[in-house]
Predict the 3D structure of the following.
Amino acid sequence: MIQKYPSTLLENAVNEFTKLPGIGRKTALRLALHSLRRTPEEVENFGESIINLRHNVRYCKVCYNICDSEICNICGDLSRDASTVCVVENIKEVMAIENTGQFRGLYHVLGGIISPMEGIGPNDLQIESLIERTKGSEIKEVILALSTTMEGDTTNFYIYRKLSGVDVKISIIARGISIGDEIEYADEITLGRSIVNRTNFSDTLRL
Amino acid sequence: MIQKYPSTLLENAVNEFTKLPGIGRKTALRLALHSLRRTPEEVENFGESIINLRHNVRYCKVCYNICDSEICNICGDLSRDASTVCVVENIKEVMAIENTGQFRGLYHVLGGIISPMEGIGPNDLQIESLIERTKGSEIKEVILALSTTMEGDTTNFYIYRKLSGVDVKISIIARGISIGDEIEYADEITLGRSIVNRTNFSDTLRL
């Protein structure tokens, strides 16, 4: 039998597409061939937008959300409640919570959750910066809004322990979201209500 | 409400991903954020492989298949039967037929099918080059292997008419019940045609 791909350029492009999450070889071939039906400028814009994002991405110095400047739009918005900080895994959760319109405080983006299976420890995340940010500041409440998985629970507990000496209320979003579900995919009403009905973290430990 | 994306770089990358077929906004965001977890080199390789494909893609001067040189590997393979040419829509069909291992002839890649709805006429396709290629050559048989849709039928008929003055046998791939399909659930047109075009049973035993 002849080689699978008739062109090494095509094969390279297909191989690169398959490295993206959820893209198999058939979809990768379809995407690669699709680029041949676009103008060179369109394809350049596509490729460069992703390279550009990777090279020039900036993170907010306060909350570590992705942004275009030193401080993100949320941290820079003086009308927001700076006494409440919502701890999330990633930017996707910031966007999901913002879309509920139920939260007017600030965020802290950990950049992941503690996962020994994937080799992600507390030092790989923005946990130390959260503790530092909380100490002697105007922050009165830290809301934990991580995924309701074992990794999320572990991370919640780790942060809870780390904040034990800090004079701050630690709450957790209401578990109206079913166990095992991911925050990113929750519907807005459930997600919004889970922010409004957040409960004291130490109360959940007794459950 | 705050802007949907906290960074214009991210927004651009997401917008570019959504231009790909079958990629919605949620998947696009997932893919864009995935690139932030890769090394800059990996992301460059990804983006450049696609730009490179678009800029440097070459088409075989004989069959218009994608290739790396003047003539594709199939057309350049002298052990193949140059008297039989299989007409296909795209490179994906070449790959699919090659994978069957049942065809040792050459191909002709049209680059699409006639579709008035999408504004694709005969002149947008490699039909004229097929006619030229067939005239006064060693080609004895042209096999039509296009999709069994109205567009495919139209294109088949157009090529058939165009080749009417050329001394060449025109055949079409068998339409019938797929291997593994149950007769009971086959559509009437396919079933009807499979009866009309029935083949000698002893011929099938040789396959």
About this structure: Chain B has a mean pLDDT of 88. Residues 40-56 of chain B form the longest helix (17 residues). Strands of chain B lie at 58-59, 66-67, 81-88, 105-109, 141-144, 169-172. The longest strand of chain B covers residues 81-88.
